[in-house]
Amino acid sequence: MSHFNVAALLACAVVCLLAASHHAQAAVARANFSNPTYPGKCVVTSDVIMSPGQTGKAPNHPCASVTCMDNGHVEFHTCAAVAPPKGCKQRDFVNTNRSFPECCERAYDCRKYI
Ligand SMILES: *[C@@H]1O[C@H](CO)[C@@H](O)[C@H](O)[C@H]1NC(C)=O
Ligand SMILES: *[C@@H]1O[C@H](CO)[C@@H](O)[C@H](O)[C@H]1NC(C)=O
């Protein structure tokens, strides 16, 4: 294979990966976490009280973000679904201590089954 072909292949691989990640849809969930004790804030848990516009890692979830909207409404975002490499099984998140979306990185088990 010539150098030109290798370069073209790499360029395609990068573009295709970007296109694929762009199309992968992350789940979004909305909820009402308003609390009269904290008007206008999002009371996600007794420890996690956010102001509108703030984003953080969702509590009680290994890897999701929570964004405080107006009037105590929040938006949860989970990781985009990514197909595992061919012949591999998707395992757990690599490190759920990372912030979102870095925590979305998955481990894969690519041993042959059967
Ligand atoms: C959100 O919940 C609060 C308290 O339960 C309620 O007063 C408010 O009307 C709710 N907002 C919406 C848009 O449902
Ligand atoms: C994640 O954080 C906890 C608590 O700080 C720590 O015990 C654990 O080892 C960390 N895990 C990784 C994979 O870094």
UniProtKB/TrEMBL annotation:
<dbReference type="InterPro" id="IPR053308">
    <property type="entry name" value="Vago-like"/>
</dbReference>
<dbReference type="GO" id="GO:0005576">
    <property type="term" value="C:extracellular region"/>
</dbReference>
<keyword id="KW-0964">Secreted</keyword>
<feature type="domain" description="Single">
    <location>
        <begin position="42"/>
        <end position="110"/>
    </location>
</feature>
<keyword id="KW-0732">Signal</keyword>
<dbReference type="InterPro" id="IPR029277">
    <property type="entry name" value="SVWC_dom"/>
</dbReference>
<feature type="signal peptide">
    <location>
        <begin position="1"/>
        <end position="26"/>
    </location>
</feature>
<protein>
    <submittedName>
        <fullName>GH24561</fullName>
    </submittedName>
</protein>
<dbReference type="Pfam" id="PF15430">
    <property type="entry name" value="SVWC"/>
</dbReference>
